[in-house]
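Hi U.,

Before I forget, here's the chain from the pilot set. I'm dumping it here mostly so it's searchable later in email.
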Amino acid sequence: MHNLPTWDLSPIYPAVDSKEFLEDLRVMTTRSKALEATITRPEAELSSCVREYEVILDYQETLEAYSSACLTTDTANERYLKATAQVEEASLVVQHLEVSFRNFLASRSEEIAKRCGEGGDLASYRFVLSELLFEQAHQMDSELEALASDLARSGTDAFSRLQEAMGSSIQSQGKTLVELRNEASSADRDVRKLAFEQELSLLKTYEVPFAAALNGVKGTTVSLDGRRGYASPLDRSLSQSRIDRPVLSALITTIEQNLSLFRTYLKHKAAHLQLEGCAFYDLFAPIGSEESHYSYEEAHALIVQQFTAFSPEMGAFADQAFAQRWIDAGSRKGKVGGAYDTAFPLAQQSRILANFDYSYGGVSTLAHELGHAWHDHVVLKKSNLLRTYPMTLAETASIFSEFLVFQGALEKSNGSARLVLVEHFLQEACQVCVDILSRFYFESAVFERRVEGELSASELCSLMEEAQDRTYGPALVVKHPYMWAVKGHYYSSDLSYYNYPYAFGQLFALGLYQLGLTSEQYNQVLSLAGSLDARQVASTVGIDLADPAFWQRGIDLIATYVKELGDALPH
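Structure:
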């Protein structure tokens, strides 16, 4: 039961200190410098420069993904730390090129407009090149951008690594923070409560370095986004997400108008657990006594079956991921918590990190990350600029895949076993809508306050509790004031508001499912995710993202399961 597979990274590189890894580092820097020299010449050919730039980005993404994959499975490993530092240092050359390349594009803007027009040889690049030109208008002078990239290594990137390392290594009574958080899904409330109390005590002990890291990241973000001409970090985030304020407003307003639905769900859950109300440590608790347990092999079979029912090609892909050990499945000391998918463009493959716990939730997480990997598979055939999609559309594929597996699990269950699955779906939906909204509120408040100066740990805790109170309301009787310390998403200067894209993905995916798309139509949506903005992608299947009625469709689907959970209560 405990012999879960680790991933096989050997098809990517033999090791972090292998000649192949070091050679690709050299190639990346050499080609970056060569291209930077080329684009200073008047005779530089636009299309060949674009394609060489894309190849260099492929090298960078592969090297970064590989060193990060190694480090996140063993955060104290000195070889992995060294390799990560080597990649970061080499990437400075690429980051310098990125600034110069955007300036090069700006100098050729008229040529770009002509060649990206109807029938032009760069027509497929129309959106992505216009996006790069927009970014060029929001970048500092080359020297300042180079300095910002260099300082990030010892600043925001270091703060992010500090949060990640503490999250995977600090311990209370022999249990790491990751292990304590895993106990949040225990059926025994005493176990959940004790783990929660130990978690809070542990985070209280380390609150100063966590707060210092968050202040460092957010302070840097405020400074740099302002210097780059963005009205706020949210404006930069919207650009990165390829949506606008009307779309975000439609999404957020729809969730806010339906908070009572999710509070009703939490009321039903509390009743099923025979509680007066849910504490934070009850949010992930299973209801009933018939929670299904899945072996890793059973998870494999269910996921492949459901993917295959929708798309045989997708099912075969998932089977290959299991068979070829693309998944690092188990928890262990030194490995980060949570789960993620990462792609290696040069190898045309992906890898998945998970912390499988034999629950249906563990199965759902594997399906989620395999959804990301499938999206990678669909777009890896394209060149770099045409396949790089925003977080909003990234989460669509993962949550769509989760829902496919959920439907299959429901078909195999009835009675109380079915109810457990329904509650798990609602649990995830509540997190993605309600908790994500609380994180959005929290991050907005932090940015507003950070302009005035650093925030203490106690101030951060107060802001977090206020955000949870605005969203969960009276349905949550015990809050988690330190959620800001355990969520690594807050600790990225380049990706602020790493929250609302999940809600976007959830409701967009449910909307796509309700449309009854064929696998071909679905893959087309995924394929276009890197080369159009989100509104344009959605419009190809008749969706207007600025229309609240579309987002309400996803909420209405969730509501059917809230009703089922409520109807199952004894009267």
